[in-house]
């Protein structure tokens, strides 16, 4: 036994893959370990990537990238030598008649070629961006007209990419029919019909064979329907994943449109973290840098400006902001060509799928051995009886051939039942169901494994703004002219407005409106709205209120230089030609209060005069900042400095204008969600860029910061050595003024030092490394950039922390549901194998016919997965510790239930087989039907039992899962039909009401047995937990599994 356990452990090591970014070597290893013992390779590996196809796609992708890299980095030099050829090439793009009729004077091919080849000379020949805009009939100010988008799509194409056509139901039907064992049974059925007709005549000779064929057809139809339903769920999720909105100017108004609605001529607004939606030309912008590595493979960022105007679709904005004129869309872009190869090969398999493939392989080998043994026993008894009969072994009749064929068919059917192909596929079914439900609860799962891994999360590192708070910000308090005022009330706002002069107001408004990454726009209904981040929106709305109250409007000014907000510096700056400074350059600086305050040496008083910022005054400002922060207000400082010339941004010498205290209330339900996390053994840590006092106030309010926890600032954390971090990290509950690198370091150490399963939230471009490093990266759907979303595993559509808890709950549900299904299926496997083998050994025949075994297989495989793998989560799941990384999937609790139920069923069925005729006074046909009926009802009630592995009350919430109720009811109803109406095909006979009641009663005793088993304590041999969250691990199963 010890030898078998050791061999099983060694074998199952081949089925260990990481949840994220598994190596190709690990993926190939478990595929090879599965070997040839697979009934239906097409179906079993349908949700597993084709590594050969993926490798080929990767080669094609690299070829495309290399061609593009040559075009981007070599062609510039080559153009010097082929200038003449390129000039003649301008005439090789005839203008289509449809484009001429619609008023356009440049073809789609020529437009696409100019950007794709970075053809500066070609662009100059068309008079630059303005000339291209004229030729595509668009105003660079007002954008395209909404009514023209259909015509533009017809002339220049739509922004859609070639995708693989969706698989139809008939394809899934074909896949389901490729089961080798079903093919063998179909062959046996045909032979059975032929021999039956020859020996018994029409129609009785064909009943057995036709019954098998009808059952095979039913199995294939139900299997295909289940698989097709899953595919529709994944198709809907894929559509959601691809939804990206961009900001464009159309009809003179700024608005959001889907990336797929972009047309040639659109004016697109781009900022940090955006994905460039199509090929285009830079119109204007500031400090604009893009990452073209997704296209060219080159990691060096590219600066885009009036000197280099070319922008390629699929690239990511790394810094700055800009407006772009779209020149090519869809398959006319290089990104469109790459998109064809990016989706090849499928998504990586999940650890649970791989683990269950290993379990299925081991059980399949055992089942094959039992099938061969059963066939050998049946044949030995048959030949022994034949040898003692008149004529001996030399005399063979058609009936003998039919008997041998039936023995073979029974052996094949045992393999059908014994090889649990449904195990890995049940994971897919459960994940598809969970992902669909999570979509309804505002969480989009991008990677299958994330939904599974989230159930094991032991730590969540969360942002503050927008995740724990509402992200609906308003300026609550303002410090200006030496005093703080509450501006959220009319009285406080009036006091502020009357305490400052017009000169001060002009400087304040100039700073508010020009030193901003957001924009005030007028919508079609003439309503003024602010487009940008919630923080910027709050300050701009405050500025609009000041303008309205003081009747002073901010003066327009040319921006000479913009330095966008930087998460390292914690500031943004802008240089403008200020009308208030006689057109001279003026620098405005805005950002983290303590950072900006350190760079100030002067302060603006209420009259608009500049005073020296003495140490005493600086302390008063600092006290005001701390007071704002302690009230859970987010603080920002605004300062300015007049410079002599140039556009360089100084690092000190600024004049302080004001300090803003921005209110961002805690989201409803967050405190309860954090409490749920703690009850579930999940530690919650806040990682924010805000002031430490603000962070601590919010953390205490929502229950994250406790008396025994600590709050630390990023700069202090960065200075710790590994030994200090090992001591410090378990106590950290809040990290303030942190950089994205700090978050990445924290996540890495939690995973490596403490073996935690870490979930991390992020919204900015710089959060991408931490999202990628974490076990589960959670990007914000509203505040998150496209770069953050692309590196995440789950997108939280409503930016709500409570939604993260729902993801964890569904993740646990997936894991537990699969455990329930495995427990149920292994019980059926053990009983079906042993019953057939024991009966063959003692009676010389199998008690369950081929049709009956196929029906049992359908109950335990497809229908069992539907019933148990789709149960919704309950609150009790969040009152137990998470499953650890190294915990075994099949636990001792499961083994207890499997062994206990198997013993009960084997004892009952064994007594019926050996003594049933005498005990119940029935003939052989009735006995076999009664055994079959009892066996099925044992499985129906054991299915109910499997709903709870540890709790005695298995009926709790049973009607909350309509799928379970429907499957259990349908199974019982169809069992009645098989026994009472399809007896000719299924090999059953009519049973009296007394026998039906007896079958149901014997089956229902499984519930009592289950309750008794759950009272038996399971000893945990793993010893005390070494987990740092203080929880004992769930009891784990034998090391062999």
What does this structure look like?
It is a single chain. Helix 17 (about 350-390) runs parallel beside helix 33, helix 18 (about 400-420) runs parallel beside helix 34 and helix 33 packs parallel to helix 35. This protein has about 1050 residues and is an alpha+beta fold. The strands form 4 sheets. Strands 10, 11, 14, 15, 16, 17, 18, 19 and 20 form a 9-stranded mixed β-sheet that branches. Strands 8-26-25-24-9-21-23-22 form an 8-stranded mixed β-sheet, sandwiched between helices. Strands 1, 2, 3, 4, 5, 6 and 7 form a 7-stranded antiparallel β-sheet that branches.
The percent range for helix content is 40-55%
Let me know the largest β-sheet. 9 strands, mixed
What value does the average pLDDT take?
82
Number of strands: 26
Strand-helix topology:
Blueprint lengths: L1 H11 L11 H11 L6 H4 L6 H23 L1 H5 L3 H7 L7 H5 L6 H9 L3 H6 L2 H8 L13 H8 L12 H8 L3 H21 L6 H35 L3 E6 L2 E6 L8 E5 L7 E13 L1 H4 L5 E2 L6 E2 L4 E13 L5 H9 L8 H38 L9 H21 L3 H19 L2 E3 L2 H6 L5 E4 L11 E7 L2 E4 L3 H10 L2 H13 L4 E4 L5 E4 L2 H17 L7 E9 L4 E7 L7 E8 H6 L1 E5 L5 E3 L2 H16 L2 E10 L11 E10 L6 H10 L3 E5 L4 H11 L7 E4 H5 L3 H7 L3 E5 L3 H14 L4 E5 L5 H6 L2 E5 L5 H5 L3 E3 L4 H43 L6 H19 L23 H29 L3 H22 L16 H19 L2 H4 L6 H21 L28
Parallel strand pairs: 9-21, 9-24, 17-20, 21-23, 22-23, 24-25, 25-26
Antiparallel strand pairs: 1-2, 1-3, 3-7, 4-5, 4-6, 4-7, 8-26, 10-11, 10-20, 12-13, 14-15, 15-16, 16-19, 17-18, 19-20
Helix pairs in contact: 4-16, 12-14, 13-14, 13-18, 14-19, 14-34, 17-18, 17-19, 17-33, 18-34, 19-33, 19-34, 22-23, 25-27, 33-34, 33-35, 34-36, 34-37, 35-36, 35-39, 36-37, 36-39
